[in-house]
Design goal:
Blueprint: E1 2-9, H1 16-28, E2 33-38, H2 53-64, E3 70-72, H3 75-78, H4 85-95, E4 99-106, H5 107-112, H6 119-125, E5 127-132, E6 147-150, H7 158-166, H8 177-186
Parallel strand pairs: 1-2, 1-4, 2-3, 4-5, 5-6
């Protein structure tokens, strides 16, 4: 049975931390591929504070281009309304009925997972894998129902990258070179 990881997010912008998570999940979970799914309208963020979805999708495509382990899906950009993970997993399940799906999330997401739309259905549609830094203790009521994946994590956040761009500070080594170029060329986060 094929094994596919699903890594959703705002990716505003995608950065090295996202790529490390995807790479480690691919290796340690023996995934056939990891599919990046940029959210069109994240339910937990003000849509006005997020770069346009088309820019975020393009940055993800640039970041994973040429890596056969990774794909990008625009399913959430094609669907109207807010981007809910449960709807995306249902779509993926219809697309790949005979595949084992692994929903890849960070430890911060685990703490708020019970607030996600139809969160119980996520467990029926996929195996939930929580990436965390070794030395941190993941906790919460769902810890027995998820698999934990210790990965080397770098202290990078998309909000920090946006702030650095706004202050004209360098972001080299925080994002792939193609993403750095795209942000500069498009005048994003100024």
């Amino acid at each position: 049975m094929r094994r596919i990881g699903i890594l959703g997010g705002t990716f505003d912008p995608i950065h090295i931390g996202h790529l490390i998570l995807a790479q480690e999940a691919h290796i340690r979970l023996r995934l056939d591929k990891v599919v990046f799914v940029p959210a069109a309208t994240p339910p937990h963020k003000d849509p006005q504070s997020v770069a346009p979805a088309s820019h975020r999708l393009h940055m993800v495509e640039l970041a994973v281009s040429g890596d056969p382990r990774f794909e990008v899906s625009d399913v959430e950009l094609r669907r109207p309304g807010r981007s809910y993970t449960v709807d995306t997993l249902r779509h993926m399940r219809r697309l790949w009925p005979d595949v084992q799906l692994f929903l890849l999330i960070g430890v911060d997401n685990l703490k708020e997972l019970t607030t996600w739309k139809e969160y119980e259905a996520l467990f029926q549609l996929s195996r939930i894998v929580v990436a965390y830094r070794p030395g941190t203790e993941p906790g919460g009521e769902l810890t027995e129902r998820v698999r934990f994946l210790p990965i080397p994590m770098v202290a990078i956040s998309a909000s920090e990258i946006r702030a650095r761009v706004a202050k004209s500070e360098p972001i080299r080594y925080l994002v792939p070179p193609e993403v750095e170029w795209y942000i500069r060329e498009q005048g994003l986060y100024r």
